Amino acid sequence: MNIVQQDDLNFLLTNRIPRRMLTRFVGWFSKIEQPLIRDLSLRAWGFFADLDLSDAKQTRFRSMHDCFTRALKDGARPIDPDPGILVSPCDAIVGAEGPVEQGQVLQVKGFPYSLDDLLGDAEHAATFRHGRYVTLRLTSSMYHRFHAPHDCIVDAVSHFPGDTWNVNPVTLKRVERVFCKNERAVIRTRLSATGHAVTLVPVAAILVAGIRLRFLDIPLRSNQGRRTFPCSVPLRKGQEMGWFEHGSTIILLAPEGFRLSDDVSQGTTIRTGQPLLRIGNG
């Protein structure tokens, strides 16, 4: 009973509020550089979250936002060099994962959603008709930058403005199609060596002031309509792609024949650069 009540309270406090207004406010507040506000904010954040800054490149931050988007010390996230491995693009907890079935994937058990809806493009979704998906959830205290899972070419980015539902497990069990409702970017890549299509979908959430992409000069603004940006950007395995301005989720889509790395399963905590998928031959 207590767990149910806690879940109810969590859901109400993080969803049944003016989500977009609060997100804009936190985006503004987190950038305040006044030392007292900055220090109190970081202390409160560290109290409520398991915040570990031991691998951060810097020890002092201009603002809470500066800490959210922190860089890491060189070598803090070794990138698996095996050319047959697709590495995790981010620090995360592995959520729903598995094969794509009839064009659908799972948010959680019993809550399917369609790739057509997520990607906004039936032809693109068909690329992964018999593929595999992995959901990677970043918590608020985790490292917020994300990286290329393999040597690849970014062919296009589509930005979808949307809502800012929380993406924690409590919400995923109660609200259908959360990832399709929230602001997101669809990043189309193809592996340099094999040509396999691999797509990353960073999904924003409540308190996330935005998704930023290092290789795209045009800002992704939530107050504009859907836009697609053609690209031709080569990235090395492990090279930084962008960052969230708070915790959120990345959904990674791979084609048929790819399989989950032996050490990875739902609930596993994984770090940037660790093996995520084994590249298929198909």
Tell me the major beta sheet: 8 strands, antiparallel
Helix content: 10-25%
Order of helices and strands: HHHHEEEEHHEEEHHEEEEEEEEE
Number of separate domains: 2
Rg computed from alpha carbons, rounded to a whole number of angstroms: 18 Å
**How big a fraction of the residues is strand?**
25-35%
Distance between the termini: 49 Å
Mean pLDDT: 86
Output the strand order for the largest sheet: 11-7-8-9-13-5-2-15
Please state the overall shape, judged from the principal axes of the Cα atoms.
globular
Low-confidence stretches: 6-11
Structural class by sheet pairing and helices? alpha+beta
Number of strands: 16
Compute the number of helices: 8
Describe the structure.
Helices cover 22% and strands 30% of the residues. It has 282 residues and is α+β, with helices and mostly antiparallel strands. The chain has two domains: 2-68, no CATH class; 85-278, no CATH class. A hairpin with a 2-residue loop joins strand 3 and strand 4 (111-114). It is globular and about 55 Å long.
